[in-house]
Design goal:
By secondary structure, the protein is α+β, with helices and mostly antiparallel strands. It has helices spanning 2-26, 82-93, 108-111, and strands at 47-53, 58-63, 69-73, 76-80, 97-102, 118-124, 127-140, 144-151, 157-161. The model has no long low-confidence stretch (mean pLDDT 84).
Protein backbone atom coordinates (compact mmCIF):
# COMPACT_ATOMS: atom_id res chain seq x y z
CA UNK A 1 0.00 0.00 0.00
CA UNK A 2 2.77 2.40 0.92
CA UNK A 3 4.62 1.66 -2.32
CA UNK A 4 1.50 2.37 -4.40
CA UNK A 5 0.94 5.75 -2.67
CA UNK A 6 4.58 6.70 -3.10
CA UNK A 7 4.45 5.94 -6.81
CA UNK A 8 1.30 8.05 -7.19
CA UNK A 9 2.90 10.97 -5.32
CA UNK A 10 6.09 10.76 -7.40
CA UNK A 11 4.01 10.67 -10.60
CA UNK A 12 2.05 13.73 -9.46
CA UNK A 13 5.29 15.53 -8.60
CA UNK A 14 6.76 14.66 -12.01
CA UNK A 15 3.65 16.01 -13.76
CA UNK A 16 3.85 19.25 -11.75
CA UNK A 17 7.55 19.65 -12.58
CA UNK A 18 6.85 19.15 -16.28
CA UNK A 19 4.01 21.72 -16.18
CA UNK A 20 6.26 24.19 -14.35
CA UNK A 21 9.06 23.77 -16.89
CA UNK A 22 6.67 24.23 -19.80
CA UNK A 23 5.22 27.37 -18.21
CA UNK A 24 8.63 28.94 -17.54
CA UNK A 25 10.01 28.11 -20.97
CA UNK A 26 7.01 29.23 -23.00
CA UNK A 27 5.17 31.53 -20.60
CA UNK A 28 5.12 35.28 -20.91
CA UNK A 29 7.12 37.58 -18.71
CA UNK A 30 5.47 38.83 -15.55
CA UNK A 31 5.44 42.43 -16.79
CA UNK A 32 3.08 43.56 -19.48
CA UNK A 33 4.31 44.08 -23.00
CA UNK A 34 3.63 47.81 -22.69
CA UNK A 35 6.06 48.21 -19.77
CA UNK A 36 9.46 49.47 -20.87
CA UNK A 37 12.43 47.85 -19.18
CA UNK A 38 14.77 50.46 -20.67
CA UNK A 39 14.11 54.18 -21.10
CA UNK A 40 17.61 55.45 -21.79
CA UNK A 41 19.53 53.60 -24.48
CA UNK A 42 22.26 55.87 -25.78
CA UNK A 43 25.76 55.24 -27.04
CA UNK A 44 27.75 57.85 -25.14
CA UNK A 45 30.60 57.69 -27.66
CA UNK A 46 28.23 58.79 -30.44
CA UNK A 47 26.58 61.68 -28.58
CA UNK A 48 27.15 64.98 -30.39
CA UNK A 49 24.70 67.35 -28.73
CA UNK A 50 22.77 67.64 -25.47
CA UNK A 51 19.85 70.01 -24.91
CA UNK A 52 18.42 70.63 -21.44
CA UNK A 53 15.18 72.60 -21.54
CA UNK A 54 13.24 73.96 -18.60
CA UNK A 55 10.23 76.26 -18.61
CA UNK A 56 12.57 79.26 -18.29
CA UNK A 57 15.93 78.26 -19.76
CA UNK A 58 17.55 76.29 -22.57
CA UNK A 59 21.07 74.91 -22.35
CA UNK A 60 22.75 73.46 -25.43
CA UNK A 61 26.04 71.57 -25.15
CA UNK A 62 27.73 70.57 -28.42
CA UNK A 63 30.67 68.26 -29.03
CA UNK A 64 33.52 70.03 -30.80
CA UNK A 65 36.24 67.38 -30.73
CA UNK A 66 37.01 63.92 -29.39
CA UNK A 67 37.07 65.09 -25.78
CA UNK A 68 35.91 68.68 -25.99
CA UNK A 69 32.49 70.27 -25.61
CA UNK A 70 31.12 73.79 -25.72
CA UNK A 71 28.06 75.32 -24.12
CA UNK A 72 25.98 78.15 -25.60
CA UNK A 73 25.40 81.00 -23.15
CA UNK A 74 23.09 83.41 -24.92
CA UNK A 75 25.18 84.90 -27.74
CA UNK A 76 28.43 83.54 -26.32
CA UNK A 77 29.93 80.09 -26.61
CA UNK A 78 32.18 78.84 -23.82
CA UNK A 79 34.12 75.60 -23.33
CA UNK A 80 32.25 73.00 -21.27
CA UNK A 81 33.82 70.48 -18.92
CA UNK A 82 33.85 67.05 -20.55
CA UNK A 83 33.51 65.47 -17.11
CA UNK A 84 30.24 67.35 -16.52
CA UNK A 85 28.82 66.08 -19.82
CA UNK A 86 29.93 62.53 -19.03
CA UNK A 87 28.37 62.83 -15.57
CA UNK A 88 25.08 63.97 -17.15
CA UNK A 89 24.98 60.96 -19.46
CA UNK A 90 25.89 58.57 -16.63
CA UNK A 91 23.11 60.06 -14.52
CA UNK A 92 20.61 59.65 -17.36
CA UNK A 93 21.58 56.01 -17.85
CA UNK A 94 20.51 55.50 -14.23
CA UNK A 95 16.88 56.23 -15.16
CA UNK A 96 15.70 52.63 -15.08
CA UNK A 97 11.92 52.32 -14.75
CA UNK A 98 10.72 50.37 -11.74
CA UNK A 99 6.98 50.78 -12.21
CA UNK A 100 4.40 52.42 -14.40
CA UNK A 101 2.54 55.15 -12.49
CA UNK A 102 0.36 56.81 -15.15
CA UNK A 103 -0.93 56.03 -18.61
CA UNK A 104 -2.49 59.31 -19.74
CA UNK A 105 -1.57 62.93 -20.29
CA UNK A 106 -4.24 63.97 -17.77
CA UNK A 107 -1.93 62.82 -14.98
CA UNK A 108 1.30 64.43 -16.19
CA UNK A 109 0.86 67.47 -13.95
CA UNK A 110 0.71 65.25 -10.85
CA UNK A 111 4.21 63.97 -11.60
CA UNK A 112 5.59 67.23 -13.13
CA UNK A 113 6.33 65.54 -16.46
CA UNK A 114 4.37 68.17 -18.38
CA UNK A 115 5.72 71.58 -19.41
CA UNK A 116 7.02 72.09 -15.85
CA UNK A 117 9.43 69.16 -16.13
CA UNK A 118 12.99 69.23 -17.38
CA UNK A 119 13.29 67.99 -20.93
CA UNK A 120 16.57 66.40 -21.99
CA UNK A 121 17.34 65.74 -25.65
CA UNK A 122 20.37 63.73 -26.67
CA UNK A 123 21.54 63.65 -30.28
CA UNK A 124 23.78 61.09 -31.93
CA UNK A 125 24.90 62.90 -35.04
CA UNK A 126 21.82 64.61 -36.45
CA UNK A 127 19.35 62.00 -35.14
CA UNK A 128 17.50 62.36 -31.87
CA UNK A 129 18.55 59.42 -29.67
CA UNK A 130 16.71 60.38 -26.48
CA UNK A 131 13.91 62.80 -25.63
CA UNK A 132 13.13 62.45 -21.94
CA UNK A 133 11.02 64.56 -19.57
CA UNK A 134 12.19 64.47 -15.96
CA UNK A 135 9.58 65.31 -13.37
CA UNK A 136 9.39 65.61 -9.62
CA UNK A 137 11.30 63.40 -7.24
CA UNK A 138 10.32 61.77 -3.99
CA UNK A 139 11.85 60.07 -0.99
CA UNK A 140 10.77 56.86 0.69
CA UNK A 141 12.23 56.37 4.12
CA UNK A 142 15.67 57.79 4.73
CA UNK A 143 17.64 56.27 1.86
CA UNK A 144 15.23 55.45 -0.97
CA UNK A 145 14.53 58.09 -3.58
CA UNK A 146 12.87 58.12 -6.99
CA UNK A 147 12.06 60.42 -9.87
CA UNK A 148 9.15 60.37 -12.28
CA UNK A 149 10.12 60.29 -15.96
CA UNK A 150 8.41 60.11 -19.33
CA UNK A 151 9.62 59.71 -22.88
CA UNK A 152 8.44 62.89 -24.67
CA UNK A 153 6.78 60.95 -27.49
CA UNK A 154 4.77 58.73 -25.13
CA UNK A 155 2.05 59.22 -22.53
CA UNK A 156 3.27 56.64 -20.00
CA UNK A 157 4.91 57.96 -16.82
CA UNK A 158 7.40 55.77 -14.97
CA UNK A 159 8.92 55.84 -11.54
CA UNK A 160 12.68 55.40 -11.68
CA UNK A 161 14.03 54.26 -8.31
CA UNK A 162 17.44 55.50 -7.16
CA UNK A 163 17.48 58.07 -9.97
CA UNK A 164 17.95 61.63 -8.79
CA UNK A 165 16.54 63.79 -11.57
CA UNK A 166 17.38 66.96 -9.67
CA UNK A 167 21.06 66.18 -10.20
CA UNK A 168 20.65 67.08 -13.88
CA UNK A 169 22.02 70.60 -14.24
CA UNK A 170 19.28 72.90 -15.47
CA UNK A 171 21.46 75.93 -16.09
CA UNK A 172 24.62 76.40 -18.18
CA UNK A 173 26.65 76.96 -15.04
Amino acid sequence: MKGNTTIKLLAALAVLVVIYLIMTMTGEKSRSKSFRDVLVDIDTAKVTKVEVLTSTEETVVTKTGDFSWEVALGDKVKPAMASAVKSLMTTLEGAVPSRLVARSADQWKDYAVDSTGTRVKIYEGSSLALDLVIGRFGVQGQRQFHTFVRLAAEEDVYQANNFMGISIAKSPN
